[in-house]
DNA sequence: GGTTGCTGCTAATTCGTATTACTAGGTCGA
DNA sequence: TCGACCTAGTAATACGAATTAGCAGCAACC
């Protein structure tokens, strides 16, 4: 087994000291260490010939940068189920990393339990990367607060609520070095679901809809809560059909007719575990004419159920998709609603991380606007 | 900045040496160092109270491996065009890496020129990883031979021809440690296209087809060549419709009617740049009743063209897909032919890399069999 | 001719952990 | 009373790269 090449090997081959190799490698031109071109070239030649690169672990041990960005996904990335949804984020991340000349480290070593990964397990390798991007529908508050507390450089893809920082964290007496204020907030690049949802909801009212409903958890993950919030801004008394979960009956906005709604921290199952036909029946029973669905895939299920029942979309029922499909969906109807700027979120997240790493002062919480989609599933209700 | 808690801190608090902390932590019960229960408990208590965990970087520094597998893709991974095709490979890779507790490093830093990446550019970072997996339709021979020459541990996903190894490789005197022979061949986990293609071709003849054609480059990438080879085993005189490329008219098997066929190293464009209707016309003109298409997406185009022309598949024309679609394809017909065991290839490639890294003796070239698909596009020709 | 200053390097130290080698102090046996 | 042997630990070192301090050789200058 060929052992890893070290700076000492390079040094031997170039007939210099290990120190010199390091100096050349890091382009150190400080007064104390000027290397003449001849020596420098000799060293660089050997490096090129051998393909030597510094051991990332040794570098990180000394707090150096590695040009490696970590990507931590709270669910595995590549299974085809979630693939279509994750992909655009990663596409943006990949593109942007490429422009910056960075490699991406996927933390596949984090053990998966109950379908989720956790950053903090006994042997987490976050520090190999210069900083990391976090992806996932829902990220436990403990994880976020610990990341912030440890001052680990990271950016969340997707808005996250600020965890309450337990300030009584390190009784052993923090060995402070400098007056640098702690970032009190979670850095993220998210999508402005509130505005987008409010906009499309307003549009439905403008078209004449009076009885509207929101279908989806509406709480748990920030992305869900934000959408419900946008919906409520315009339709405070609109119906909310959450997932089936008797454990936590929520009663959100006063006077609003919330029916269930909870989230155990994992991705919500399709339509919260109900049959599309049942959901449809309930909606129709309540006289609803326009439905706002968190997940486009659920909208598709409802459309199918409606068609099966002899109804026409959007004449008999308008369907609005508050985002993209989280799982593959048949048919090629264009749903009214909006798209999540996933690729752009990925790109900007990388940019923000880079800014943080290079100490640049910048707003660390960003919301991108969603792209509204005219589509063909929202129209004036039949009666008009 | 609260600096990380170290073993020295624990040692100080427990009034022992750092060595003792390490011994306790790792449960070292070797004769040379037995720690009495009292001391052990004292140390463990401090560890519990402080929530100390060992820095994984420092641990790994002492071992030879970093638990990082590189993933080098000759085209960017995430763009949606190639996504559907790459995905299953990566799915298998991710799963397997997870089981081994390894992280995956995507070499996004390799600059993309002409839509491709190259491993060997002036500042390649391959050696950050313990070893790497290579993915791509076509991998230049120079790259492979250099990887082999440098004894870099890697596994190709997909069969590769052995490049002619220039044995005058390492004049600097190889630092051999042991009499271990150099691997003379490119390690890979591939799919057995030859057998699979031969099998489905034979099936077509068994059904009564006499005039058959192969559509696709048939050379360039190993995967293309293998399929054509399998086809030729059964149908030595079958028609071959390659891509339009006047630069290299190949005349492969003697007596065979090869019509063009070349590959500039990039993924072949759909149907080699021809119009599906033109290709269809040529096939029909030659009296072909069964067509074997390298790319399922091309088969779909042909099916569409056939339908447009009023023909029925498979009654008027049988279509066989020699693998999966390299780009998204509309419609949900199940094509006769076979599937590439992509996920399994990914899994096995990781396993093979791990075996190589741990010095295990094992066959370094593997071919997995393809899964035959009965499908609905291959049937006896009309006349029968 | 002795000090200063510059050039071109290198020795030594650091990061946090694991391992190896060793030591101080005691017991036992002959 | 000496050596062998055990116990309970610790000092020293290694891993690979970066940094700090410093050294040898030479030139310039008063």
From TrEMBL, chains A, B:
<keyword id="KW-0678">Repressor</keyword>
<keyword id="KW-0238">DNA-binding</keyword>
<keyword id="KW-0805">Transcription regulation</keyword>
<dbReference type="InterPro" id="IPR000843">
    <property type="entry name" value="HTH_LacI"/>
</dbReference>
<dbReference type="InterPro" id="IPR010982">
    <property type="entry name" value="Lambda_DNA-bd_dom_sf"/>
</dbReference>
<protein>
    <submittedName>
        <fullName>LacI family DNA-binding transcriptional regulator</fullName>
    </submittedName>
</protein>
<dbReference type="Pfam" id="PF00356">
    <property type="entry name" value="LacI"/>
</dbReference>
<feature type="region of interest" description="Disordered">
    <location>
        <begin position="159"/>
        <end position="182"/>
    </location>
</feature>
<feature type="region of interest" description="Disordered">
    <location>
        <begin position="238"/>
        <end position="273"/>
    </location>
</feature>
<dbReference type="GO" id="GO:0003677">
    <property type="term" value="F:DNA binding"/>
</dbReference>
<dbReference type="InterPro" id="IPR028082">
    <property type="entry name" value="Peripla_BP_I"/>
</dbReference>
<dbReference type="InterPro" id="IPR046335">
    <property type="entry name" value="LacI/GalR-like_sensor"/>
</dbReference>
<feature type="domain" description="HTH lacI-type">
    <location>
        <begin position="5"/>
        <end position="63"/>
    </location>
</feature>
<dbReference type="Pfam" id="PF13377">
    <property type="entry name" value="Peripla_BP_3"/>
</dbReference>
<keyword id="KW-0804">Transcription</keyword>
